[in-house]
Amino acid sequence: MRFFETQKIEDCITCIKSxxxxxxxxxxxxxxxxxxxxxxLGFGNIKxxxxxxxxxPYDVILSHGHxxxxxxSFLYESAYINPKDIPVFKEYGDMxxxxxxxxxxxxxxxxxxNDFVPTREIELLPINHGDLFELGGLTIEVIEAPGHTPGxxxxxxxxxxxxxxGDACNNCxxxxxxxxxxIQEYQKTVRMLLDRGEEYDRVLLSHWRSEVPKSIIQDVYDxxxxxxxxxxxxxxYGFMDIEAYVxxxxxxxxERVDGKIGNVIYxxxxxxxxx
Length: 275
Fold this sequence. Notes:
Layout: E1 4-10, E2 13-18, E3 24-29, E4 34-37, H1 46-51, E5 58-61, H2 67-70, E6 78-81, H3 86-93, H4 95-109, E7 123-126, E8 132-134, E9 139-144, E10 153-157, E11 162-166, E12 173-175, H5 183-195, E13 202-205, E14 211-213, H6 215-228, E15 235-239, E16 242-246, E17 264-266
Parallel strand pairs: 4-5, 6-7, 11-13, 12-17
Antiparallel strand pairs: 1-2, 2-3, 3-4, 8-9, 9-10, 10-11, 13-14, 15-16, 16-17
Helix pairs in contact: 5-6
């Protein structure tokens, strides 16, 4: 069974897509080292697959601790993560929590339990805002971007002028999770990404599409403003037992009807800061 497929973004950037479950991972390669950014939900052997893509030594970095980004990390001895997201990693990495995804995805995509990477203890290495990874001709800067989770990270590929925003700011930014920050706090993160807009021309995501225009950042910022001012469309969105709302109306494909890209899904009890 084929679990992964690739798409070249640049000679040094490979997008790896989980064929069955749809999430994106990225392999960044310099002349001396490489980085695997995120490891997917955990169906298939991402470690074996990446070994077929590069001969360079590489580190594994996790953009945040949710189950659809950390699943393959249990194939490795260690992975980098923002310390603020270690509690998220431990919660979503617990096999009882992961088994929910296992059952749902297995039923929907005809997958077997044997295709799933089991949880085990690995070393979690700290990675923080401002850290640099020098790969040889390619510099990756770590940008802390709290909101989706407390320790969510973005990454700036300096020489390529590309921002990986991942789940931090995307076409359907999830701010309704229990661990998500209030919209008011999250907008400060988006403002920071906007303020650094002269440093990047393109944006990479973890879901939906691998690459989108940088205007997505402004779209999400404006969504936050509309939510706080009571001007959101508030399309109901149910997720398990959580009552949430989509800021801007979407069509049957999940895309904004007004033609813009960025959107936010949020809870009405998590709009304004509590401090």
